Amino acid sequence: MPHPPDGATAGSLRAVGISDVDEQLYRALLHNPRATLSQLTAATDCSPVLARRGLDRLETMGLVSRQGQPARFLPAAPDMAVEALILRRQEELERCRMAAAALLAEYREAGQSAGELVEVIVGREATFQRYRQLLITARGEVLMFDKPPYIGPAGNPLEVDVLSRGVTWKAVYAPEALEMPERMAQLRVWQEAGEQARVCNHVPLKLVMVDRALALLPLTADSETESEEHTAILVHPCSLLTTLGMLFDMLWEQSLPLRWTGPLTASDTGLDEIDRTVLQLLTAGFKDQAIARNLEVSLRTVRRRLSNLMAAHGLTSRFQLGQLAVRRGWV
Questions:
Q1: Is the distance from CB of 306 to CB of 321 less than 8 angstroms?
Q2: How high is the pLDDT of residue 229?
Q3: 3-state SS assignment for residue 278
Q4: What is the C-alpha to C-alpha distance for residues 146 and 254, in angstroms, rounded to an integer?
Q5: How far is CA 311 from the centre of its chain?
Q6: Do 28 and 44 meet the contact criterion of CB atoms below 8 Å apart?
Q7: Closest by alpha carbon to 26, among 38, 43, 48?
Q8: Rounded to whole angstroms, how far apart are CA atoms 115 and 331?
Q9: pLDDT tens digits, residue range 117-148?
Q10: Angle at the Cα of 121 (from 118 to 123), degrees rounded to 5?
Q11: For burial by CB atoms within 10 Å, which of 166, 172, 250, 301 has the most?
């Protein structure tokens, strides 16, 4: 079987309805136009029955034509043939979208009960799956209150994919969420991808809201253990959803921006990267031990840098230092 060219991998045409076997046949024809059934069978290690059925399917899709007797098979040009399949699949998806809109109208006409406005989800796996579904459907905006403990990976591998689609992502972090190992490195990746991040000393709950149309939040206490049954609710459009959106907007305005990839440089501020990070964590409410742990330096190093910064600017308290850092735009 011929190897796929650069940028084209086996199975790359599944999205337009072409199976792996059919793709093998089509690739073999691209390398050997006018091949017979027996030649294609040998080239792809397919049985004659599978090869014949695959060629019939490819012919129906417009990727293959046959000539002569015994039949020889000719591949259609990939750019035209595959593009036609993509357009056909887009038309099918658009029809599905229209059907979904019609079903939604029927659903709303039937009216929602109070139980349908707030959906109860039981179990960690079920909650995490619903979280994934929410992010996949996000079109305009994701709002998040972030605080441990987490039911899924703390690294949130879905976020970069969501941001790559042009979705706005705003996150308000509790200080304890930023103290987790590797969290600073993750924040840099997310902010480079477009995340807008802030920190608040009092994040009241964990929350993810998508397009202000659905919100997922846990009901289980933060002290949950593996033995407890995790419970969450999915809130549909109603006054509770509106209230949650207003709560997010209020805390967002009151929170301190986190800027790990900002344009400031050492020459702009007179500070090196470690000093800037120390000030960022200090104003976010981190204790000295947490700052040292995040920077992977000793507690003595953190305290010495803070003392040097206060002395260099004639300050007598860390509170004054934090105010100065915010006022001068260092954090």
A1: yes
A2: 73
A3: helix
A4: 15
A5: 44
A6: yes
A7: 43
A8: 45
A9: 888 888 888 888 899 999 999 999 999 999 88
A10: 165
A11: 172
Handedness of CA 183, 189, 193, 199 (dihedral sign): positive
Distances (CA, A) of 319 to 100, 161, 190, 201, 324: 55, 38, 29, 15, 9
- Residue 209's closest CA among 138, 152, 122, 124? 138
Count the neighbouring beta carbons within 10 Å of the beta carbon of residue 248.
Answer: 19
Cα separation of 229 and 184, whole Å? 31
CA gap 23, 12 in Å, rounded: 9
Q: Which residue type, as a one-letter code, is found at position 68?
A: G
Question: Quick one: which of 144, 212, 203 has its CA closest to 174?
Answer: 203
Quickly tell me which residue has 């949950």 as its tokens.
Answer: 224
SS3 329: coil
Secondary structure (H, E, C), 202-245: CCCCCEEEECCCEEEEECCCCCCCCCCCCEEEEECCCHHHHHHH
Cβ contacts of residue 211 below 8 Å, gap of 6+? 138, 139, 140, 141
Maximum distance among all alpha carbons in the chain?
95
For 94-116, the pLDDT digits (tens) are 777 777 777 766 666 665 555 56
Cα separation, 169 vs 179, in Å, equals 21
Neighbours of 272 (CB within 10 A): 11
3-state secondary structure of 294: helix
Q: How far apart are CA 145 and CA 176, in angstroms?
A: 12
DSSP 316: -
Query: pLDDT tens-digit profile of 178-202?
Result: 777 677 778 888 988 899 988 887 8
β-pair partners for 120: 233
Confirm if 299 and 292 have CB atoms less than 8 A apart.
yes
Token pair 């959106």: residue: 245
